[in-house]
Amino acid sequence: FAGIAAAFNSGPDRAHALVGGLARFRFHYLQIGATFETTDSGEDPAFGESPLDRWRAIGGFAGVLLPYNHWITLDASVGVGSRTYSNSDTIYGDRGLSASLTALTFRLAVSDRLTHKLISPRLGAALNVSTDLSSPDVAWTRRYVASDGSVSETKGTTPIGGVSVSLVVTAGFELGGRPR
C-alpha cells in the first residue's frame, strides 16, 4: 500500500508519504495478519530545513472481511504494534532520536478481486487510524559556537507519538476464493 498520512500531537501537525505491506490469512469472514509501514521525514534539504521525525511500524491485526457484491470486499480490523520514531538530527544526541511506542491501529478498507482464478490481483483503498498509547516528550540540546569561540546552548523538548490518519491505495495478490 502507499498513500499519505497526517500526524497529530501536541507539536506541529505534519503530513508524511507512507508505504507499507500487509499479509493476511482469511478463514471465511475472519482475518488475521501482519503489517509493516514506513514514512518519509517530510523536510526539504534544498531549503536547509533540519531533519524531521519519521516512523516505522510493525504489528499484527485481527478483523472481518465481508463480501459486498461479486468480488468486492469490505474489511475492518483492529491491531496492535510497535511504532518507532526516528530523527537523524544530532540535537537528540550522537545517534539522533529513536523511540519505540506501542500503537493501536484501526483499519477500514474496500477492495476488488479482479478475477475468479486461484491467484488474482486485488486493488483497493483503506483508511487507517493509529494512536500511540503514550506520547512522551524527547529532550534535545542545540549548541551554538559564537564568533568569540564561546559555546551556548538552547534546550527544549519535541513531542512524539499521538494520532495518525492515513489514506492509502492498496494493490496485491490473493490466493484462494472469496468467503462463502
Word description of this protein:
The protein has 180 residues and is mainly beta. It contains no helices and 10 strands. Strand 8 and strand 9 form a beta hairpin. The protein is elongated, with a radius of gyration of 20 Å. The model has no long low-confidence stretch (mean pLDDT 90).
Notable characteristics:
69% strand; two-stranded antiparallel ribbon; mainly beta; 180 residues; elongated; eight-stranded antiparallel β-barrel
Strand order of the largest sheet: 1-2-3-4-5-6-7-10
Look at the structure and give the mean pLDDT.
90
Largest sheet: 8 strands, antiparallel, barrel
**Low-pLDDT ranges:** none
Number of helices: 0
Query: How large is the radius of gyration?
Result: 20 Å
What is the tally of beta strands? 10
Helix content class: under 10%
Strand-residue fraction?
A: over 45%
Run of helices and strands: EEEEEEEEEE
Q: Name the shape in a single word.
A: elongated
Give the N-terminus to C-terminus distance in angstroms.
26 Å
User: Would you tell me the structural class of the helices and strands?
Assistant: mainly beta
